[in-house]
Design a protein that fits this description.
The chain is α+β, with helices and mostly antiparallel strands. The chain contains six helices and 14 strands. Strands 4-5-8-7-9-13 form a six-stranded mixed sheet. Strands 1-2-14-6-3 form a five-stranded mixed sheet, with no helix packed on it. The chain has a three-stranded antiparallel sheet with strand order 10-12-11. Strand 7 and strand 8 form a beta hairpin. It is globular and about 50 Å long. It starts with 5 loop residues before the first strand and ends with a strand.
Length: 225
């Protein structure tokens, strides 16, 4: 059965959305072959293909009507809109991309190439694996600590657990980690929306941790209108 898109109010002049498991894309969305890295592509024509965008995890575009997007199944999608310069961006920020601060690097490229000011940006942090579900090993915790994240905000040690899935152990809050990155990049806190939807527990979204890496993907897209 068709499921409605999760749509965001990101401001006049742009539209942004995330598909659910049974959603139908309302338009063509330019996507790349993501590799959990920090390469960023500027989309300067509407006919770019996935093969053209091999190895890119973030995209910037100022072409009206051209949707750009990233695929996720627990990773964090970050959608950015500058209503002043009329520029949008879509960022795939899994835990590796978060440690690499790919959202910050995208904002810096928006500044250098398009004259964007972080204080003008509006941001959406879309559905992703939530802090209660994102149990990690100590080596992942170390990577966040070494990258300078505020650990009391993004990490918790929940002890031995009760035997249920994802209980106990180390947990990382990717929502808060990416919000911190955006704020450190100069985006006002009031301009940041966090969906707060946990893809691991919400069955209307794909989750690689729940279903395996061969599962489908949620498409997170933005375009100028």
């Amino acid at each position: 059965m068709y499921q409605e898109l999760l749509e965001y109010s990101i401001g006049p002049g742009a539209e942004a959305f995330t598909t659910r498991r049974e959603s139908v894309l309302p338009c063509t969305v330019i996507q790349g072959h993501q590799v959990h890295g920090d390469r960023i592509a500027v989309i300067d024509r509407p006919d770019l293909t996935k093969a053209d965008l091999e190895g890119y995890d973030a995209f910037i575009c100022r072409l009206p009507g051209v949707a750009i997007g990233v695929r996720t199944a627990d990773c964090v999608p970050v959608l950015l809109y500058d209503p002043v310069r009329r520029v949008v961006a879509a960022v795939h920020s899994g835990w590796k991309g978060t440690v690499l601060k790919i959202a910050q690097k995208t904002i810096r490229l928006m500044e250098s190439d398009f004259g964007c000011r972080p204080t003008d940006l509006r941001a959406v942090i879309g559905p992703a694996i939530g802090p209660d579900s994102f149990q990690v090993g100590p080596e992942v915790v170390d990577k966040f600590r070494d990258a300078g994240f505020p650990m009391p905000q993004v990490w918790s040690d929940r002890g031995p657990g009760d035997g249920s899935p994802m209980s106990g152990g180390h947990h990382i809050d990717l929502f808060r980690a990416n919000k911190w990155i955006l704020e450190q990049s100069g985006v006002p806190a009031d301009n940041i929306q966090i969906s707060g939807i946990d893809t691991y527990t919400d069955l209307s979204f794909f989750s690689a941790r729940r279903e395996g890496t061969a599962c489908g993907r949620n498409i997170n897209a933005i375009r100028l209108i």
